[in-house]
């Protein structure tokens, strides 16, 4: 095999690996969003998507928040679907090799990415909701960001092990 052929093969393998790893990250973003929506919005009922500007204390405001939560879940579904398709596309190639720890790293990294982006934009910049409103809202918001940052670091480390 020529050097050029080997490079093409290595380039193809790298592209396949990037595809499935990107898919894993997007899947992690979607799953992190679903965890947030299911656990924090629905089970614990700490907040809804727009509960700061529209406190869910009236039926009209609850309807607005329910719509916001539904749109939020729809976006999570899109991330999960795109992640699954990219992941599958990258893995079905014959040259793809991967480790379970790397896959878990992509999921953890994606979830951490979700927490950091959502925590910075929705909680801090836009202020449309906080993790848990009340006297210690800032502590909950900062804990959420710290949890996301730790997941980013752990996920990144696991993903780097593949290289």
From TrEMBL:
Domain of life: Bacteria
Pfam families in the record: DUF2243
Keyword annotations of the record: Membrane, Transmembrane, Transmembrane helix
InterPro entries tied to this protein: DUF2243_membrane (IPR018719)
The keyword Transmembrane helix appears for this protein: yes
Transmembrane intervals: 20-44, 70-88, 100-117, 137-159
Protein name: Membrane protein
Organism per entry: Deinococcus aetherius
Higher taxonomy: Bacteria, Thermotogati, Deinococcota, Deinococci, Deinococcales
């Amino acid at each position: 095999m020529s050097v050029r052929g080997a490079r093409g093969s290595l380039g193809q393998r790298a592209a396949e690996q990037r595809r499935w790893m990107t898919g894993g990250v997007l899947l992690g973003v979607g799953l992190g969003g679903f965890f947030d929506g299911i656990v924090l919005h629905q089970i614990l009922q700490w907040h809804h998507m727009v509960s700061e500007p529209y406190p869910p204390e009236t039926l009209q405001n609850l309807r607005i928040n329910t719509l916001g939560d539904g749109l939020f879940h729809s976006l999570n579904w899109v991330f999960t679907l795109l992640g699954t398709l990219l992941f599958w596309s990258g893995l079905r190639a014959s040259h793809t090799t991967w480790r379970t720890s790397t896959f878990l790293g992509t999921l953890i990294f994606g979830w951490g990415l979700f927490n950091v982006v959502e925590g910075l934009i929705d909680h801090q910049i836009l202020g449309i909701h906080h993790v848990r409103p009340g006297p210690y809202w800032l502590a909950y918001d900062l804990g959420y960001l710290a949890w996301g940052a730790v997941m980013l670091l752990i996920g990144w480390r696991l993903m780097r092990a593949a290289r």
